[in-house]
Amino acid sequence: MAFLFKLVKWLVILLLVLALAIAALLQFGPLSLGSAKAILNVLGVYSVEAPQQSVIAQRLKVPEGFSVGRYAEGLTKVRFIEFSRSGDLLAVLSRDGQLVRLKADADDDGRHDGKEILMEGLKAPNDLEFYEDYLYIAESNAIGRVRFDHEQGKFAGDYEIIIPSLPDDGNHRSKSIRLHDGDLYLSIGSTCNVCEEADKRRATIMRFDVDGKNGEVFAAGLRNSVGLDIAPWDNSLYATDNGRDLLGDDYPVCELNKVEEGQFYGWPYINGFGDLDPDFGPGQEDRLSISTSPVFGFPAHNAPLGMRFIRDAKFPSAYKKSALVALHGSWNRSKADGYKVVALHWQDDGSVIGKDFLSGFEKDEDIIGRPVDIAEGPDGCVYVSDDYAGSIYRVCHGQSQNTLVDLASDEVADKAFEELSTEEMRVALAVGEKLYNQYPCASCHLLQGKGNSGGKPLDALKSRYTLQSLSDYFLQPNAPMPVYPFDEVQRRAVAVYLLSAE
User: What structural domains and CATH numbers belong to the chain?
Assistant: First the structure.
């Protein structure tokens, strides 16, 4: 039965891919490799390896005075992220149905201090937010919450569904939430590219009490508003919105809307700044007078997702009245576009100017990342999730990051222990020592006279291991040593630390 279910699932995916490819082919001609991969990523069946730090340094661009590094990797289909009050970064892994906790970076090395799975079995989770004593989670079919102990990084109660039975058929199944001033705002996307919905909850933002009661449609005509946030200067709700597809490379714009109660934002009858849709607009001219236009238009098919107003980040004064928006990137253009984070700056006259903030994920159809969400960290930096490479990036102002040394790069991996440069050795020793102390290694071993005096000494390792063979040993260690959740960088770092400790 399980095999049959998987077979049906893959057949459905293949049919969807074929349908999208045919639609794009009719419009643009043959799909580019980048667009084909983007389609598969949208369907949750394709990703890439996290780029090496050397690639990050070469490809990713930030404004002058900023730096970018990789905070985490190996997070399959990571979507929205949120910091706890203790500095832990929580993230939802949509495809795996998991909520994970990335432990706070206590040693200030620019990387998290370990991953822990807090919850499994969630249905396509997309968003999460802390509010008062609760952590709220947006699954595709429900909104739940659980009391959270920020100090311990653990739940302080049982997970409860407070808004059940949400529609998650068709397209745009993911749900987004934002809580503010006693209200819970919930975005429910459309079932389709363009259509008239039977379920009046679709293509809206709804408003509930924070306990999930008294739900009502707050604003309508919003095709797929994925990112929601509250402007800190006037408490207005803003939302990104993905414009419809298959009307050409450059039409219609994707949108940033100032979302107000009772307003109608056009879809499916009106696109962008008051344009009647060619399919559903004829005969709907009277709706033009009641439709609210966006406050900013992103290029067509750039797919704006998460957004975050700058509140606590240690950024220059130019970002005082600004928001960062993650552009997931196009799948149905003849040439790929988007794939970056942009900064939106509000002007004194109310207009909005957009500028690139973190770019370079796409270059000549070569795509190494698709930004999803932004969070402000306790260190004054901002963090960007990427569901294409399963990574989280850290962008800081006024401080450098270790983006040039990559212990997992092919160049370093080919080196023997004796061939490591001074900088490579320094970084590896710092990471290796941290991991050795973080895990209970000293309870079983004696290293340089420290640890379990009756334990197995870790000496003369150079006579038995090379850097590569000791790194590989951690993949399948001899009992009773457990298999620790080290990635390639961490395995090499621990190996360097142990080989240097003679």
Answer: 53-397 (2.120.10.30), 410-499 (1.10.760.10)
